[in-house]
Amino acid sequence: MAVAGVAVLGVIVGARIVSNRPDSSVDDPLPLAGVEAPGAATPACTALMAALPAELGGLPRRQLEHADDPSLSGAAAWGEPPVVLRCGIPTPAELTCTAAVQEVDGVAWLPLSTGGDTTYFAVDRSVRIALTVPQEVTSTGPWQEASTVIAATLPERDICRGGVPLPTDGE
Predict the structure, then answer these.
(1) Which end of the chain has fewer CB atoms at under 10 Å, N or C?
(2) How far apart are CA 87 and CA 38, in angstroms?
(3) Residue 30 covered by a domain
């Protein structure tokens, strides 16, 4: 579980580092750090990545710098500062069977805030998905639209069985 906690911190910090870049534009390729994503190559993540829109919450999709890097196969971003989605990440240590989750458009999310930014973890699918929304993005549009795409693309499943969070594809 300690490894998952470190990986989740990497997802949050990696997205935050990008959002602190000076003099950037939505037209610039986005340098995004690779993070542990053991489920990024699963059929579920492949299907989700193919279904992601050109705009999310009114924010244009960003080209990723080094997009051919396998560690970025489950990553996408929109806007500036960027909203970053990562598919296939490890289960966050904060996910327990009694964790307070929020449901948006049929998707259960575990929100974790760090330094003003919030990373929402979709926890009721066969893969874990993280959506990091910078504090400067005040609209819930990206979160709602990501929920709609996830619900339409990936089947819902139980979060826990027997009092233990279910493992995901790739874990």
Answers:
(1) N
(2) 9
(3) yes
For residue 122, give the amino acid letter. Answer: A
Question: Which of 100, 126, 125 minimizes the C-alpha distance to 111?
Answer: 100
Give residue 128's domain range.
Answer: 2-165
Q: Report d(CA 127, CA 171) in Å as an integer.
A: 9
Which range, of 10-14, 57-61, 70-74, 137-141, averages the lowest pLDDT? 10-14
CA angle 157, 163, 167 (to 5 degrees): 50
The number of folded domains in the chain is 1
Residue 120 located in a structural domain: yes
Residue 170 lies in a domain: no
Indicate whether 137 belongs to any domain. Answer: yes
* Amino acid (one-letter) located at 85: L
